[in-house]
């Protein structure tokens, strides 16, 4: 049985707040079930790791919790968030622009290695 879960957010567009709910919620649930969980934000989803972006997003209009609140909850539950390295250039970011919950920058090789070489890992793409 797999002990690790990698959630790859590549096609989820932060412009659509409702798309942010499921992957972050599922990451929190998996962490609560004591799985090791990583969320890798790449492509358009990489914007979530930039300070101020997730603070202004809501899964549902009128919700008292922002997407950033859900990220903080997930991180507190043990979820590790990462930003893919091309996002820095794509979105004119530096490491200083990343939210504190982002534990680092990873490249394509890291992602491929997690998917292809770690038999204890399951992957969910969004």
How is the topology of this model organized?
Blueprint: E1 4-9, H1 18-32, E2 36-41, H2 67-77, E3 80-84, H3 86-90, E4 102-106, H4 108-117, E5 121-125
Parallel strand pairs: 1-2, 1-5, 2-3, 3-4
Question: Care to describe what's here?
Answer:
This protein has 126 residues and is an alpha/beta fold. It has a single domain, classed as DsrEFH-like (Hypothetical Protein Ychn, Chain: A). It is 33% helix and 21% strand. It is built from 4 helices and 5 strands; from the N terminus they run βαβαβαβαβ. It has a 5-stranded parallel sheet with strand order 4-3-2-1-5. Helix 1 (18-32) packs parallel to helix 2. The longest helix has 15 residues, at 18-32. The chain is globular, with a radius of gyration of 14 Å.
Estimate the strand proportion: 15-25%
The count of strands amounts to 5
Number of domains: 1
Radius of gyration: 14 Å
Strand order of the largest sheet: 4-3-2-1-5
Listing every helix as H and every strand as E from the N terminus to the C terminus, the arrangement reads EHEHEHEHE
Q: What portion of residues is helical?
A: 25-40%
CATH class call: Alpha Beta
Broad structural category = alpha/beta
First-residue to last-residue Cα separation: 22 Å
Give the mean pLDDT: 94
What is the overall number of helices? Answer: 4
**What coarse outline follows from CA principal-axis ratios?**
globular
CATH superfamily: DsrEFH-like
Secondary-structure arrangement, i.e. CATH architecture? 3-Layer(aba) Sandwich
**CATH fold-level name:** Hypothetical Protein Ychn, Chain: A
> Largest sheet, if any?
5 strands, parallel
Low-confidence stretches: none
């Amino acid at each position: 049985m797999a002990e690790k879960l990698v959630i790859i957010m590549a096609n989820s567009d932060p412009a659509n707040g409702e798309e942010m709910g499921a992957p972050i919620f599922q990451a929190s649930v998996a962490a609560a079930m004591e799985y090791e969980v990583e969320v890798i934000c790449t492509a358009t989803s990489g914007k979530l790791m930039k300070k101020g972006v997730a603070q202004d997003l809501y899964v549902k209009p009128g919700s008292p919790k922002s997407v950033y609140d859900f990220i903080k909850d997930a991180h507190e539950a043990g979820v590790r968030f990462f930003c893919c390295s091309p996002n820095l250039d794509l979105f004119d970011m530096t490491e200083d622009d990343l939210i504190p919950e982002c534990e680092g920058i990873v490249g394509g090789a890291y992602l491929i290695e997690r998917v292809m070489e770690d038999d204890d890992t399951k992957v969910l793409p969004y």
